[in-house]
Write a structure and sequence with these properties.
The protein has 3 domains: about 100 residues, no CATH class; about 210 residues, Electron Transport, Fmn-binding Protein, Chain A (Pnp Oxidase, Chain A), CATH 2.30.110; about 110 residues, 3-Layer(aba) Sandwich (UbiD C-terminal domain-like), CATH 3.40.1670.10. The protein contains 14 helices and 23 strands. The radius of gyration is 25 Å and the shape is globular. Helix 4 packs parallel to helix 10. Helices cover about 25% and strands about 20% of the residues. It is α+β, with helices and mostly antiparallel strands.
């Protein structure tokens, strides 16, 4: 295979820059196949017809392409399998924007901000102004259908999981892993649906591991079944509209339905169909559906697994899913991803989350101006936050507030700068931090929860954290001398030089 360099100078869509697909008309993808056609039309996908193995070979190919910011790959000839495999479909800023049908993620953030904006309508015209917002919410509610493409083929005997080209990603992995699953469960007491993305190690043709962490909603549902001693029904969707796939990764509050959020993203309801053997609804346009149950108390060793930190996460005991039935579309396409040393496909999905959910963070902490979860920090290790500072110690207040909020509790390093710093510019952030910080005065140490994948902590799930207040300090914060003025050129001279810039470099005859 010839090594090719792709899109090395790609600009960040997430920084609100208009991209080459700016003129594309928004229309919800019906399924994964429509997204594949769109990628191919935009020269963002390559079909590979050479025979390849799902054991390590695809990972090496996809890893090389990912590191070169290359295209999505559709492998059409997998050794020992009839189904093609799609990978790296979300693996760039441009493709992530295409997946959610926007030019940049701030468009979605703006819509979320409008919906969350408190407004009590006054009079007839005030109520009329509320109608578009109410329609947008009602258009997000999932639609139940009785027939679905994902149930065109029903398997209850014969080949099951062994018919799907599940990847063994890295040499020391405990086995093959399903890496892009949409895991559907229901709360035993309320019946509330949850959809999360949790890796699944395939043990044999009808059993697999369910790797849900201690802080995940799927595990919260499981614990209620474990307490009751009754089996827990589970359904796993593979493939579908890209907004549905992304929604499974979104850090939504427990009472927000991921499928409703997907409908909001795609501006059209997600069609759901009831499974054949379990009482759970799943996206009708999925490629595969795995139906089964988890027996409370039954666990099995899962892992090791080459994870998104760039290191192997260790083997541990996790619940086991028993497959009762598999349904799939005719000529189904198996979607997969790999994780490892960044950048990889999951990085761009996480950067989308950073931009989309910023308004929710700002609603609670309105002084926050912007946020950057750098790819190198694998999203739970570092957060860079800019604030509109108006009082002493506000930076430290934000640090402590973030450690008390949802998944932000796992953030190991938080760096606070003021809103005249571009947090997306790492050079500028490090210049501020290296110059503005007195370690004794500006470091905040704490202990608390950490992500289960943080291998640096002395104990699983618990360790030390560092907050760095890199804002300017005054006397009330212990600064005993005037803060120096930052070097800046005058506005008039900058405008003059802008005006004459081309003239400076015109070649003239002697």
């Amino acid at each position: 295979m010839t090594s090719v360099s792709y899109m090395k100078g790609e600009q960040s869509i997430f920084a609100s820059r208009v991209t080459r697909n700016a003129s594309r008309k928004t229309m919800a993808y019906k399924d994964l196949r429509e997204f594949i056609l769109k990628l191919e039309k935009n020269k963002e996908l390559i079909r590979i017809k050479t025979e390849v193995s799902p054991v390590l070979e695809i990972t090496e190919i996809a890893d090389r392409i990912s590191k070169e910011h290359g295209p999505a790959l559709l492998f059409e000839n997998l050794k020992g399998y009839k189904f093609p495999l799609l990978i790296n479909a979300f693996g760039s800023y441009k493709r992530m924007a295409m997946a959610l049908e926007v030019n940049h993620m701030d468009e979605i953030a703006k819509r979320i901000k409008e919906i969350m904006k408190p407004h009590i309508p006054e009079g007839f015209f005030g109520k009329l102004q509320m109608l578009p917002k109410l329609k947008e919410i009602s258009d997000s509610i999932p639609k139940i259908v009785s027939h679905a493409p994902c149930q065109e083929i029903v398997l209850k005997d014969g080949p099951m999981l062994d018919s799907i080209p599940v990847l063994k990603c890295w040499p020391d992995d405990g086995g093959p892993f399903i890496t892009l699953p949409l895991v559907f469960t229901k709360d035993r007491e309320t019946g509330q649906r949850n959809c999360g993305m949790y890796r699944m190690q395939v043990y044999d043709r009808v059993t697999c591991g369910m790797h849900w962490h201690i802080h995940k909603d799927g595990r919260r549902h499981y614990l209620k079944y474990e307490k009751s001693g009754k089996p827990m029904e589970v359904a796993v969707a593979l493939g579908g509209d890209p907004a549905v796939i992304y929604a499974a990764t979104a850090p939504l509050p427990p009472d927000i339905d991921e499928m409703m959020f997907a409908g909001f993203l795609r501006k059209k309801p997600v069609e759901l169909v009831r499974c054949k053997t379990v009482d759970i609804e799943v996206p009708a346009q999925s490629e595969f559906i795995l139906e089964g149950e988890i027996v409370p108390g039954e666990v099995r060793i899962e892992g090791p697994f080459g994870d998104h930190t760039g290191f192997y996460s260790p083997a541990d005991k996790y619940p086991v899913m028993h497959i009762k039935c598999i349904t799939h579309r005719k000529h189904a396409i198996y979607p997969a991803t790999i994780v490892g040393k960044p950048p990889m496909e999951d990085c761009y999905m996480a950067k989308a989350t950073e931009r989309i959910f910023l308004p929710m963070l700002q609603m609670i902490l309105p002084e926050i101006a912007d946020m950057n979860l750098p790819i190198e920090g694998v999203f739970h290790n570092c957060a860079i936050i800019s604030i509109k500072k108006t009082y002493p110690a506000q930076g430290k207040k934000i640090i402590n507030a973030l450690w008390g909020m949802g998944q932000m509790m796992n953030t190991k390093f938080i760096i606070i700068v003021e809103d005249d710093t571009d947090v997306q510019n790492i050079n500028e952030v490090t210049w501020r931090a290296f110059n503005n910080v007195d370690p004794k005065r500006d470091f905040v140490f704490s202990e608390g929860p950490l992500d289960v994948l943080d291998h640096s902590a002395s104990w699983p799930l618990f360790g030390n954290k560092l907050g760095i207040d890199a804002t300017r300090k005054g006397p009330q914060e212990g600064m005993q001398r005037p803060w120096p003025e930052e070097i800046k050129m005058s506005k008039e001279i900058k405008e003059l030089v802008d005006k004459k810039w081309k003239d400076y470099f015109v070649m003239r005859d002697p």
